[in-house]
Each structure stands twice: as structure tokens, then as C-alpha cells.
Amino acid sequence: MALISVGKPARWQLPKGIVDPGETPEATAAREVQEETGVIASLLEKIDTIEYWYVGNKAGQRVRFHKFVHFFLLAYESGDIGQHDWEVNEARWVDLQAAKELLSFKSERQALEKAERMINALKS
């Protein structure tokens, strides 16, 4: 499992990003994984979509944002985890159990648990 550390203070999370105009969530997932981890991966299955609201700043104003996050299970094809982009403090390979302990967000731990069930089903 490839995780990324971002921000100050650092937090561990799954690679993710904004869907560009004309881009599908699937294409975004593959692109963001490559940018943030240095890994080229192929899409296996959709894991889940979550949605939530948060408050942030836009043009100096406090604004509520409605966000959708699409999680996908991807398979490693090639690449070097040390080749992540500038947005990331560190990218690291970890096993599933370590990932569950490191992830900062409950929603990402839940997506990881679903991915684990999917991986186990693919193995059998």
C-alpha cells in the first residue's frame, strides 16, 4: 500500500486530488497516484465514494465546500516511490495493518478496510 505524508504537522493519507475538467474520477486517481507517489498503477475496481461539507477560504471569504472523494483499488505497474512530487513530504510503502494505524482520516481507514476485503476476494 502506498501512503503519502502531507502538511505541517504531517499527516498520513491516501493519494488523492481534484478532478480536472474533462477528466474522469478514474483517470484522476491514476494521475494523482503517479504524481504523489511516483508509481504508475492500473485501475482494478472502484472502492467507494464519500461526500462531506467543510468550511474553507475562497478569495478571503469563509465558504462552505461540498466535496466528493472517489476511492479506487489500483495495482502497481511500475515506478519509484521516491519520485513523488513537491506537494508530498514523503511517500512510503506500508502493509495493510500499518496503513490502518497510520492513516489520519476515519473515512480513509474505512475505504482501506473495503479494499482489503476486495483484495482478499480477488485472491480466492
Mean pLDDT: 93
As for the CATH topology, it is Nucleoside Triphosphate Pyrophosphohydrolase
Structural class: alpha+beta
Terminal-residue CA separation:
20 Å
Q: Biggest sheet, open or closed, and with what strands and sense?
A: 3 strands, antiparallel
Number of strands: 5
* N-to-C SSE string, H for helix and E for strand: EEHEEEHH
The number of distinct structural domains comes to 1
Widest sheet, order of strands = 2-1-5
Q: pLDDT under 50 segments (min length 5)? A: none
CATH class: Alpha Beta
Computed Rg: 15 Å
Q: Please, how many helices?
A: 3
Strand content: 35-45%
Which terms would index this structure?
124 residues, Nucleoside Triphosphate Pyrophosphohydrolase, 3 helices
Summarize the SSE layout with pairings.
Elements: E1 2-6, E2 11-13, H1 25-37, E3 39-58, E4 61-79, E5 90-93, H2 96-102, H3 106-123
Antiparallel strand pairs: 1-2, 1-5, 3-4
Overview of the structural elements:
With 124 residues, this protein is an alpha+beta fold. It has one domain (2-123): Nucleoside Triphosphate Pyrophosphohydrolase (Alpha-Beta Complex). The chain is 31% helix and 41% strand. Strands 2-1-5 form a three-stranded antiparallel β-sheet, with no helix packed on it. Strands 3-4 form a two-stranded antiparallel ribbon. The chain is globular. The two termini are 20 Å apart.
In short:
Strand 3 and strand 4 form a beta hairpin. Helices cover 31% and strands 41% of the residues.
